[in-house]
Design brief:
The protein has about 120 residues and is mainly alpha-helical. The protein has one domain: Up-down Bundle (Methane Monooxygenase Hydroxylase, Chain G, domain 1), CATH 1.20.58.1000. It contains 3 helices and 2 strands, in the order E-E-H-H-H.
């Protein structure tokens, strides 16, 4: 359960398309997978958001630009590390299943996500 009272939804959903009726003879069904790093990811996101808020205050207070840039670099590094954790967890759970089932579309989406992440 998240602080806001909302229940956690996995950060990865696999969508399998099966030939059982539906639009164009295809049905889409979502499969949620457990992720071992969910709590770790959420904690890291909260810390990075807090750090970013403190940087906002630094800018509002007119703090030294060099100090602000150093802190921004720290947040960027934290966000990149969160992405690496999500990437590894996604590969271990979702992509492993996609490979087992020959789900080329999931692999293509994964490649697109990696390309965006690495920009």
């Amino acid at each position: 359960m998240l602080r806001s009272g909302l229940q956690y939804q996995p950060f990865c959903d696999m969508i399998h398309i099966t030939p059982h009726g539906g639009y164009g003879g295809m049905v889409m069904s979502e499969h949620h997978h457990p992720h071992t790093e969910t709590k770790n990811v959420l904690n890291r996101i909260s810390r990075a958001a807090g750090h970013l808020e403190s940087i906002k205050r630094m800018v509002e207070e007119g703090r030294d630009c060099g100090d602000v840039l150093i802190q921004l670099a720290a947040v960027r590094s934290a966000i990149n590390n969160i992405g690496k954790i999500i990437l590894a967890d996604h590969m271990e759970h979702c992509i492993a299943e996609a490979v087992e089932h020959g789900d080329r579309e999931a692999l293509d989406r994964f490649n697109e996500a990696i390309a965006q992440f690495l920009k």
